[in-house]
Amino acid sequence: MDSEAQARFDLIASNLQEFLNPEIIEKILIEKRSPRVYWGTATTGRPHIGYFLPALKIAQLLKADCEVTVLLADIHGFLDNLKAPLELVDNRAIYYRNVVTALVQSVGVDTSKLNFVLGSSYQKSPEYVMDVYRMASMVSESAAKKAGAEVVKQTGNAPLSGLLYPILQVLDEQHLNADCQLGGVDQRKLFTHNPYSAATEWLPKLGYSVRAHIMNPMMAGLGGQKMSSSDGADAKIDLLDTAEAVAKKIKKAECFPKIVEDNGVLSIVENILFPAAVLNGHGEFRVERRDAEPLVYTSIAQVKEDYAKDLLTPQILKPAVSAAMVSLMAPIQAAYEASADWQEITLKAYPPPVVHKKVKKVKDRGSRFPGAKQENAKPEEAKPAEDAPTEQLAQTSI
Ligand SMILES: N[C@@H](Cc1ccc(O)cc1)C(=O)O
User: What residues form DSSP beta bridges with 20?
Assistant: First the structure.
């Protein structure tokens, strides 16, 4: 590889946890072509700051002159235990498109060449559907189950659609004509046969070629574990959260002094703030101190070292992370404020829950309590006590 190809390769490979079959990409770069990479996202819950990871990777891929496609996987949102009901899925796809575009633009990368494809636009074609049937006849039920174990919601009497999900995701590589698929490391079992069978083993069964796979690390959540859309509102930061909400959530986050592992706050610095700072051109993370010069970092290794020594304490780290996140999210929020369409689609994609007003139960004190109106007394007395049998039943069942 010449130095230009090497620089492109390094950008593609940066900040990854795993890169499978890199030789596929190397060959394309040596031939001075543009690798075609796709990232799929099931259009379900509201995207949180964890979406910065794929978005920053997409920004790097665009800079490395890759052809990038974002698959708005509406059908997958529905196949996965109905996480996104069919009637909301279209609006959610538009919401995701706006979010991903704004995320990539927030680090100054042009999105005019970023391609968006809606899953349902090709996953219902006769060719695609026939491939689903062919693959379903060649892949065992247990392999499909294992492949989806970390991605598809696991329930007792799971719907059959959860077994189709991995088959469709694997076929997308072929039908989107990709050289490489990007995903979080949680997608690993869908990507490779080690330890389970999926894309790299299933595609050749239909005569299709094996693709490269690039995997982002998973962010630790603010409560310590992997960040997920199904976390409670306090454990994840929504991209449209106000500065106060961001500060409050980070302040509450689990962040033990000197402990670097599974630390959600440090995970933000490592996986979001540094890669974004590099794309933004300054490459720095600053921590202000009250009585001393600010600490200025240019690598996560230095940050972790100082944190382990308690020179960088949770008390000074947290406000620095809040401030940096708020300024990183500012252009996304400005884009939202400036777009009446986006605001309208938000309401349609995530309709506020209908609150059933609680009607205050008026205690039935009967008609004989002191002060009861005399005229009510008679008819009430004449009526048989309707509640009595239920009350008895409830008592016996206790
Ligand atoms: N499995 C991805 C979504 C996805 C769907 C289809 C694909 O082809 C790729 C990715 C997720 O967890 O969100």
Answer: 213
Residue 325 CA to residue 319 CA, distance in Å, equals 10
Return the residue whose CA atom lies nearest to atom 2 of ligand 1: 41
Cite the DSSP H helix spans in the chain: 3-13, 22-30, 52-63, 74-79, 86-105, 126-136, 141-147, 161-175, 188-191, 199-205, 243-252, 264-268, 274-279, 300-308, 314-338, 340-349, 374-382, 388-397
Ligand 1 center to residue 340 CA distance, Å? 29
Atom of ligand 1 nearest to the CA of 190: 1
151 within ligand 1 shell (Cβ under 6 A): yes
- Per residue of the chain (398 residues), what is the pLDDT tens digit? 999 999 999 999 999 999 999 999 999 999 999 999 999 999 999 999 999 999 999 999 999 999 999 999 999 998 988 777 888 888 999 999 999 999 999 999 999 999 999 999 999 999 999 999 999 999 999 999 999 999 998 888 889 999 999 999 999 999 999 999 999 999 999 998 765 667 788 999 999 999 999 999 998 888 866 666 556 667 789 999 999 999 999 999 999 999 999 999 999 999 999 999 999 999 999 999 998 999 999 999 999 999 999 999 999 999 999 999 999 999 999 999 999 999 999 999 999 888 877 767 666 666 665 655 554 444 433 333 333 333 333 333 32
Dihedral sign (CA 99, 105, 109, 111): positive
Ligand 1 geometric centre to CA of 181 (Å): 10
CB of residue 72 inside a 6 A radius of ligand 1: no
Q: What is the pTM of this model?
A: 0.86
- For residues 120 and 74, the answer to whether their CB atoms sit within 8 Å is yes
CA distance 188 to 92: 25
Residue in 265, 273, 262, 272 with CA at minimum distance from that of residue 247: 265
